[in-house]
């Protein structure tokens, strides 16, 4: 109640402060008009009145804001009766009304939202969101605890005005956003917003503790503590799953046919690792600006709560859904935009993704081979011809810049192993075998492990190259099967790491976007105003790959050297392998995102080091 009352009072304070400033502005304008002319008074008053008016716009927008668009997979009572019965029982125990909808979402989270009106004073349609990863990793008791906690925010003392407090936070944030950085009245309201959030966050932490007590009361302290402690572990597993298993294939143009089912298999296969993560005690501290107490504090409160006997239900939470596999596939259809990606079963998806990674790295070498030899058809066969001619060191030193040519040639056995693997796969003599517990493995047609490392070591030496060719031929591996696909470097999978406005590139006013794979040069107006806004819009509108395709792209791999002639502002030259020289000149008045200027210097210095070693 205190949080909601304080929120509403401070919202009223927003109006009062705005009205006071409006009166001051009008009074000031009248005084100026009397002392000078009415025209000057109006000229001064209009911008200030508009600035103050932004306050009312922000509050009005927040009052009309709803909980957000419906998302996730709607689960009906007929489709999951046990889940609905469980939620109904929990709502009764917690002391709140039953949600009108239950939806599965692709997040390691659970939440309740309500389409309330008049800053939450009038209730509306209520929805319970349950994260599919939690259902796949939690027990029934743990899910009961999580659901009880979320419903607890809408029970007893949290009802009605608690939603108003949330709307109050939206009103404050929306108002400050509407004011902008350069609004003359912004200083007062930004200070007011910090005071509001300070009060509101303290009350929010108190409500989290109350919801935790409801969770303990309904599900028992053991289940409540386990559910809370397991959240970081499940979140880490979900992140690992996406980065290790999903992202490589997704970036290569593929999609798994059962995205959520894959995570379920990962969880089942890596129980020991998850158990180790669960044993780690949280140590993070809380701040007065946090909306939640620290996990350690919350767990301590749960352990101190009254101990009540609870029947243990350690069944996997997946039993709450009649078919978790069907639910996962349906959720994927609902929330995942596959686009033009090829949808494959998991074994084929992993195989295609791994091969695509091999091809991408091989293409990088093939492009260097083209620059060195001028061949129009770079392939593994052409590379072996280079070895036979005793020139592998010339190519290898580009990839091992801190080694002599002879040393670089020997070290090139690693990349050679990779390229031989690509040839074996393209020849239909090697295959990828996936595992949920180990890295993907290369096997032959009989499923036996296949290792080409020894042949690769033979293939980098002109004296033993013949033996390598013979062994490859005996295996049926065709070296011509490994050839270039991307003859020109692209920004596939590239990420934006910086951006600078109004940099002269080759004497032309440009916006320079820094990717982790190269430079993107986009035309820019001569005026340097609004540069930061322009950069933000650019990087929000396009991905790194799209930027590289849409504008001039200079891959790092094409850089043969660089010179920094002046550091403040930056003056530099970039020398490409084809002899082209690209000049860069920074403006004193140019804008940047973050510390992009430092990033540019680091990139240029790295190019210089690589070419000097």
From TrEMBL:
| Gene3D superfamilies in UniProt | Metalloproteases ('zincins'), catalytic domain (3.30.2010.10)
Domain Peptidase M48: start-end pairs: 78-303
Report keywords, A-Z.
Answer: Cell membrane, Hydrolase, Membrane, Metal-binding, Metalloprotease, Protease, Transmembrane, Transmembrane helix, Zinc
Membrane-spanning regions, if any? 12-34, 40-60
Check the record and name the InterPro entries matching this protein.
Answer: HtpX_protease, Peptidase_M48
Keyword Phosphoprotein included in the entry's annotation: no
Q: Name one Pfam family in it.
A: Peptidase_M48
Q: Which membrane topology describes this protein?
A: Multi-pass membrane protein
**Compartment annotation:** Cell membrane
State its cofactor.
Answer: Zn(2+)
List the protein's name. Answer: Peptidase M48 domain-containing protein
């Amino acid at each position: 109640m205190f949080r909601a009352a304080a929120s509403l009072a401070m919202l009223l304070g927003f109006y009062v402060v705005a009205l006071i400033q409006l009166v001051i502005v009008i009074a000031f304008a009248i005084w100026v008009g009397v002392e000078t002319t009415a025209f000057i008074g109006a000229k001064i008053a209009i911008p200030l009145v508009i600035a103050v008016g932004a306050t009312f716009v922000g509050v009005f927008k927040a009052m009309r804001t709803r909980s957000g668009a419906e998302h996730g997979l709607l689960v009906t009572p007929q489709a999951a009766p046990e889940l609905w019965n469980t939620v109904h029982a929990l709502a009764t125990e917690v002391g709140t009304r039953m949600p009108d909808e239950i939806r599965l979402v692709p997040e390691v989270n659970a939440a309740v939202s309500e389409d309330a009106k008049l800053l939450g004073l009038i209730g509306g349609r209520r929805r319970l969101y349950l994260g599919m990863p939690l259902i796949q990793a939690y027990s029934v008791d743990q899910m009961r605890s999580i659901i009880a906690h979320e419903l607890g925010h809408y029970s007893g003392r949290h009802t009605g005005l608690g939603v108003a407090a949330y709307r109050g936070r939206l009103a404050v944030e929306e108002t400050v956003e509407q004011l902008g950085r350069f609004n003359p009245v912004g200083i007062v309201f930004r200070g007011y917003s910090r005071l509001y959030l300070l009060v509101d966050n303290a009350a929010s932490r108190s409500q989290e503790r109350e919801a935790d007590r409801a969770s303990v009361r309904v599900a028992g302290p053991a289940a409540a503590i386990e559910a809370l402690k397991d959240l970081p572990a499940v979140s880490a597993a979900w992140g690992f799953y996406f980065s290790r298993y999903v992202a490589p294939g997704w970036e290569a143009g593929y999609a798994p046919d059962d995205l959520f089912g894959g995570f379920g298999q990962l969880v089942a296969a890596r129980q020991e690792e998850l158990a180790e993560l669960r044993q780690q005690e949280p140590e993070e501290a809380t701040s007065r600006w946090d909306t939640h107490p620290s996990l350690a504090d919350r767990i301590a409160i749960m352990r101190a709560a009254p101990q009540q006997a609870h029947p243990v239900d350690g069944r996997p939470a997946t039993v709450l859904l009649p078919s978790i596999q069907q639910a996962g596939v349906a959720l994927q259809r609902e929330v995942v935009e596959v686009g033009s990606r090829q949808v494959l079963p998991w074994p084929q998806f992993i195989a295609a993704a791994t091969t695509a990674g091999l091809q991408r790295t091989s293409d990088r070498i093939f492009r260097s081979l083209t620059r060195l030899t001028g061949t129009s058809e770079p392939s593994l066969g052409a590379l072996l011809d280079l070895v036979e001619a005793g020139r592998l060191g010339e190519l290898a030193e580009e990839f091992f810049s801190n080694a002599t040519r002879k040393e670089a040639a020997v070290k090139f056995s690693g990349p050679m192993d990779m390229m031989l693997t690509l040839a074996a796969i393209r020849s239909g003599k090697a295959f990828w075998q996936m595992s949920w517990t180990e890295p993907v493995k290369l096997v032959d047609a009989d499923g036996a492990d296949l290792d080409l490392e020894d042949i690769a070591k033979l293939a980098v030496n002109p004296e033993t190259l013949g033996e390598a060719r013979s062994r490859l031929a005996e295996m049926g591996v065709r070296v011509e099967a490994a050839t270039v696909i991307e003859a020109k470097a692209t920004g596939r999978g590239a990420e934006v790491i910086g951006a600078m406005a109004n940099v002269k590139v080759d004497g032309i006013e440009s916006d320079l976007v820094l990717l982790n794979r190269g430079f993107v040069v986009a035309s820019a107006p001569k005026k340097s105003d609004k540069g930061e806004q322009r950069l933000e819009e650019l990087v929000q509108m396009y991905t790194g790959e799209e930027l590289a395709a849409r504008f001039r792209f200079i891959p790092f791999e094409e850089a043969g050297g660089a010179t920094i002639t002046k550091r403040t502002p930056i003056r530099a030259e970039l020398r490409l392998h084809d002899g082209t020289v690209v000049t860069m000149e920074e403006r004193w008045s140019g804008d940047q995102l973050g510390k992009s200027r430092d990033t540019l210097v680091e990139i240029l210095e790295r190019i210089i080091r690589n070419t000097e070693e």
